[in-house]
Design a protein that fits this description.
Elements lengths: L19 H24 L9 H6 L6 H20 L13 H11 L2 H14 L4 E5 L5 E5 L14 E4 L6 H4 L3 H8 L5 H8 L2
Antiparallel strand pairs: 1-2, 1-3
Helix pairs in contact: 1-3, 4-5
Bound molecules: manganese (III) ion.
């Protein structure tokens, strides 16, 4: 059985950048639904019960066909959102330090150039998806709830949910305003901790 992880802060902690209403719906409804539907998929294919979340979503071609799409969408959704909450913090924002900052600057020339590139890729996602910073400093996007480790890539250092459910209540159709606000809550300490792994 997979469970909804607690948010590491209160629903209203991200203040003016991402409202309590969005955080409540996104966590307690959207993420809960991914967890529930992943559990239902695993329930219907008992040979999957011994597998971890990572094992499920990195071995999709071995998942029984009737539940493959459910594991992909809801397993990916559970994996992505479990990280997404940790990638934000009321103490977030600013710029990374140390090795992470050095790697970003080595690849992009400056932190601002990295932000600009990541933002451009976020706005270029057509429909629903995610944008990621990978350990090799490349910025990639995936559709729906797909996630880099599903594609044989390394686990992302940082990811941004650009589904409309992540911002529509606050920002309506203005994804650019959402992305601009999100940089103010990015938890760079957590991002850096993933580089150390
Ligand atoms: Mn989402």
């Amino acid at each position: 059985m997979f469970n909804l992880p607690n948010l590491p802060y209160d629903y209203d902690a991200l203040g003016k950048y991402i409202s309590k209403d969005i955080m409540f719906l996104h966590h307690s409804k959207h993420h809960q639904t991914y967890v529930d539907k992943l559990n239902a998929a695993v329930d219907s294919a008992p040979e999957l019960k011994a597998l971890s979340l990572e094992e499920l979503i990195t071995g999709l071609d071995t998942i029984p066909v009737p539940v493959q799409t459910a594991v992909r969408n809801h397993g990916g959704g559970h994996y992505n959102h479990s990280l997404f909450w940790q990638w934000m913090s009321p103490e977030g924002g600013g710029e990374p330090r140390g090795e992470l900052a050095a790697k970003i600057i080595a690849e992009y020339g400056s932190f601002q150039s990295f932000v600009d590139e990541f933002t451009t890729k976020s706005l270029a996602v057509f429909g629903s998806g995610w944008v990621w910073l990978q350990p090799d400093m490349q910025i990639i996007s995936t559709a729906n709830q797909d996630t880099p480790i599903m594609q044989g890539l390394e686990a992302p250092l940082l990811g941004l949910d650009v589904w409309e459910h992540a911002y529509y209540l606050d920002y309506k159709n203005k994804r650019d305003d959402y992305v601009a606000a999100w940089w103010n809550v990015v938890n760079w300490d957590f991002v850096a901790s993933r580089l150390d792994k």
